Amino acid sequence: MLKYKIGTKVVHGSRCYDPHTGAVSFPIYQSATFRHPGLNQTTGYDYSRLQNPTREELENTIANIENGKFGFAFSSGMAAISTILSLFSPGDHIIVSDDLYGGTYRLFEEIYKKYGLEFSYIDTGKIQEIENAVKDNSKAFFIETPSNPMMKVSDIRAISEFAKDRGMLLIVDNTFLTPYFQRPLEFGADIVIHSGTKYLGGHNDTLAGLIVVNDDELAEKLKLIQKSEGAVLSPFDSWLILRGIKTLGLRLEKQQENAMKIAKWLCTHKNVTKVNYVGLPDHESYNISKSQASGFGAMISFNVKDVQIVEKVLEKVQLVLFAESLGGVESLITYPVVQTHSAIPEEMRERIGVNDTLLRLSVGIEDAEDIIADLEQALE
């Protein structure tokens, strides 16, 4: 059996075609229920909340490209994270990257804290802070790497070794780099999460969440939660994500190429005071990133001189769209302090650098010169 490289794996998915019909575009099995051949007999599919052939193909595909054994697809990234939190019990302590998506923080603090889970937020890029945060009831690390929106990098291998020595799980949100550039399971992570809405779907047209694990026991627990809580991905949305994954490599390569040009240009602009992009050689975690990822992605955040410039930029951009979300073919600009990170307390935002002069840019596949021209006229 040939071993394919990631650029091939994303195109062909798990099975590449429908084994029943030969359809190269895997069919949308738009059925809630399935006929049984007889008593105590099944085709392998009974009810779509339990399993659906289209969702199954996506789940096998994400497991395949992450080099994992088991994949699970959910109705959104937050549904996937919520499912993971259901693995824990009241009194359990989870150590979390302090620079993370505001919706994740809101889920932790406003929903799951009420059920007795305890969360600590630290800079998971610093091993000393990790060591200091561990308690007797600590059960897991939850990290974003690169982080949202400050693009901080955590050492997956080092945290994994630390976690295993203490019987803890390592959960990695791999949304920004995707398995095309980074595969955390290969460095010892236990659970990988994706907001499939972003780069995996790639076209800003559907919501999805994905989980990948290698451990059989973890997989059984996740399967039980998935079918019991029912936040599964629909057949049509599963097909949209499958379709998006086919062009993941092409899109990311172009987006990364654009991002590097734009990041370097932003560094030279008189109204920009700081640029956060993992691919810049002066990024504090550039070498760690190169050791665990084959690419830098296409997410940039940057500070402008004053808050008045922020408002002008968001009003004046034309090609770049002022909108939430990220990872699609269109370039999007977001104001984290008001939009994606408003749920995070001001003190915490200020400490990690999410202030009123910070903008986040998701670089698309347009011509880089056009993106730069639009940013230039907006920043003047």
List unreliable stretches of 5+ residues. Answer: none
Class of the largest domain in CATH?
Answer: Alpha Beta
Mean pLDDT: 96
Can you list the strand order of the major beta sheet? 1-7-6-5-4-2-3
In angstroms, what is the radius of gyration? Answer: 21 Å
Overall body shape: globular
Helix content: 25-40%
Strand count:
12
Strand content: 15-25%
Tally the helices.
14
Q: Using the 3D structure, state the CATH architecture of the largest domain.
A: 3-Layer(aba) Sandwich
Give the structural class. alpha/beta
SSE topology sketch:
Blueprint: H1 6-12, H2 53-65, E1 70-74, H3 77-85, E2 93-97, H4 102-111, E3 118-122, H5 127-133, E4 138-144, H6 156-165, E5 169-173, H7 178-181, E6 191-195, E7 209-213, H8 216-229, H9 235-246, H10 248-267, E8 272-276, H11 286-292, E9 299-304, H12 307-316, E10 321-322, E11 332-334, H13 346-352, E12 358-362, H14 368-379
Parallel strand pairs: 2-3, 2-4, 4-5, 5-6, 10-11
Antiparallel strand pairs: 1-7, 6-7, 8-9, 9-12, 11-12
Structural commentary:
- By secondary structure, this protein is α/β, with parallel strands linked by helices.
- The protein has two domains: 6-246, Type I PLP-dependent aspartate aminotransferase-like (Major domain) (Aspartate Aminotransferase, domain 2), CATH 3.40.640.10; 249-379, Aspartate Aminotransferase, domain 1.
- 37% of the residues lie in helices and 15% in strands.
- It has 14 helices and twelve strands.
- The protein has helices at residues 6-12, 53-65, 77-85, 102-111, 127-133, 156-165, 178-181, 216-229, 235-246, 248-267, 286-292, 307-316, 346-352, 368-379, and strands at residues 70-74, 93-97, 118-122, 138-144, 169-173, 191-195, 209-213, 272-276, 299-304, 321-322, 332-334, 358-362.
- The strands form two sheets. It has a seven-stranded mixed sheet, with helices on both faces. Strands 8-9-12-11-10 form a five-stranded mixed sheet.
- α2 runs parallel beside α9 and α12 (307-316) packs across α14 (368-379).
- The longest helix has 20 residues, at 248-267.
- The protein is globular and about 75 Å long.
- The model has no long low-confidence stretch (mean pLDDT 96).
